[in-house]
Amino acid sequence: MEVKQTNTSLSSSRPDTGGYAEPINQLPRAVLRPNNYLLLDGDWQFSLDPDDRGLSEQWNNQHTFDGTVQWPGSIEEHMAQARGAQSPEGWRDKVVAWYERTFTLPDRSASVAQSIIQLTFGACGYETRVWLNGQLLSTIEDEDVHLGEYTSFSYELPDELLEAENRLTVRIADTMDAAIPRGKQESHVYKRGGIWYQTYTGAVRSVWLESVERNRLRSRVGVVSSVEDRLVRFTLTTRVHDAGDYTIRLTVVAPKTGEIMATSDYPLHLNVGQKRQRVSLDIPDAQLWSPETPVRYKLVAQLIDNTGYAAQIETHFGLRKIESRGRHIYLNNESIYLDGILYQPGTATFEEMQLHMRAMKELGCNMVRVHIAGVDPRIYNLADQLGMLLWVEVPSPHVSNALSRQNHKAELLRMLALIGSHPSVIIWSLYNEDWGAEDIAVSEETRQYITDMYHFMQLSYPQFLVVDNDGWRHISVEGRLKSDLLTAHLYTPDLNRWRDLLNRLEAGQLEGVAAFSLVVGDPFFYRKQVPLIVSEWGGFGFADYGGPNESEDRTERIAQFKQELRRHAIAGDIYTQATNIEDERNGLIDPHTGELSVPAGLLNSREPQPVELT
């Protein structure tokens, strides 16, 4: 088989760019290593397994595949290609697909004694099994079967299985099971059409090999800032094959100049396995990160063994603090209004998502709500650079039961592990409009799970604000909201009705404002003790939401609605939405070119001058 791939030889993940210039990151990850990697994107052999016979027939050992497909890509596209169709296919039951390719063993960046070949999938699933030369692999987390499809996972390739020429086999299975976190993709409960989209699963992000040290820091970093005293708490994860005494060394480098701002060593004894370790570093002269001044610093973190060998990772971070106090949101102890927009990337490429982010900034947004979807991790880096605040969400299941809650928690933890260092990410939603928690008003078990996860987030991830269930049916326990924000989804195309809804929301009316009661559980009495956010509104152009279709009329209506928002005690708003996606034709940005269909600055209500209407 002739294998075409993005990289035909080893490439460095930290090219010599001269000076401080930030390296181009070709891999879908936020943390870099000064090592070599080999992308395995390109042609893979492919076969569908409609009767799920591949495991019993041991396709991992020998199988004649039906054809070739491009990785990354979706199973839906690959099914269509295999059947000669032009458009992607969906399904109503279980789908199983097998992929295979060969690779030549790359040279190692460190000595053989110190290095391991690591295989990483940027995202793949929902259920993934991987074999090397016919032998089943286990992930670094000791999973024979990896579950999830929004975050990366890795395998250390055993030396005894590696050959000069190697065969990599992947089995991917997915279903329409409503207990699987899937966001707005169709399921057994919600069918495609309206706001429900075609499934897009499988081999959806890059896969690569890289040389890593036996004893190293994993590519995940948590950052919590104490902005008053310029103290930063970093959470690192060590992975060690050789027990012994080590030193974690942190060095913070200034932007542009490359000046060392702070450095410190932390000696510790490590046993075999993984360990999370929190360390603090004082950076007295650091500037704070904000949308107006998105100042980032480079963190160089090293795990140094007793011979002096240093295994290194690098990432960027910013110092910032987010709080909800009274009816205001405070960024770095200053009140901020959130001019936001709802963003559903769908099947957009990384290049298209970059265009979208810049266009949303041009619209005047300082906040993007990435709506119940997983995105390429480099988008978080881009938001950090642009000074764009992000509201992220766990892709929701479509049914409420013990399994869906177990899957939801696992997906949340996987996402948190990889999004802990970004100053742009300030808000997390656990659920949206009680999708996957539809019994929230009557089930103590469902409310207790969400309450427990809210408390967990408060203790373990204090750098984020947390919303329990966005849109309505927030949870109250003894009159205390289990959400840092009181959010409402308000859809009406009528200006007078809009004024009335905002008046009632501001007055603390919990019934008859949104589609359902704003609060469930114990009675909650709103007295401006929590910020109000209109976290969805508008949608003008989508048939189900009403409002004007033409750009000029939409511009005027949006400007009028924004003016009404600022006349009320509202802390922020999220307009629906950034781009068209499938049947939802209500976007303000061309999904392919990034061009605006409305004037620049339309959603910026922070500036005193009114928007100039065309």
Question: Could you characterize what this model shows?
Answer:
With about 625 residues, the chain is of the alpha+beta class. The protein has three domains: about 30-215, Sandwich (Jelly Rolls), CATH 2.60.120; about 215-315, Sandwich (Immunoglobulin-like), CATH 2.60.40.10; about 330-590, Alpha-Beta Barrel (TIM Barrel). It is about 15% helix and about 35% strand. An eight-stranded parallel β-sheet has the order 27-26-25-24-23-33-32-30. Strands 3, 4, 5, 7, 8, 9 and 11 form a seven-stranded antiparallel β-sheet that branches. Strands 1-2-12-6-10 form a five-stranded antiparallel β-sheet, with no helix packed on it. β32, α7 and β33 (about 570-575) form a beta-alpha-beta unit. The longest helix is centred in the last third of the chain and has 17 residues, at about 400-420. The protein is globular and about 70 Å long. Residues about 1-20 and about 610-614 have low confidence and may be disordered.
Q: What number is the mean pLDDT? A: 92
For the termini, the CA-CA separation is: 57 Å
Quickly name the level 1 CATH class of the largest domain: Alpha Beta
**Number of domains in the coordinates?**
3
Secondary structure: helix percent? 10-25%
CATH H-tier superfamily of the largest domain: Glycosidases
Number of helices, where a helix is a run of at least 4 consecutive DSSP H or I residues: 7
Strand content: 25-35%
CATH topology of the largest domain: TIM Barrel
Shape: globular
Instruction: Give a quick account of the main beta sheet: strands, pairing sense, barrel closure.
Output: 8 strands, parallel
Radius of gyration: 25 Å
Q: Which structural class fits the helix and strand makeup?
A: alpha+beta
CATH architecture of the largest domain: Alpha-Beta Barrel
Strand order of the largest sheet: 27-26-25-24-23-33-32-30
Number of strands: 33
Uncertain stretches: 1-19, 609-614
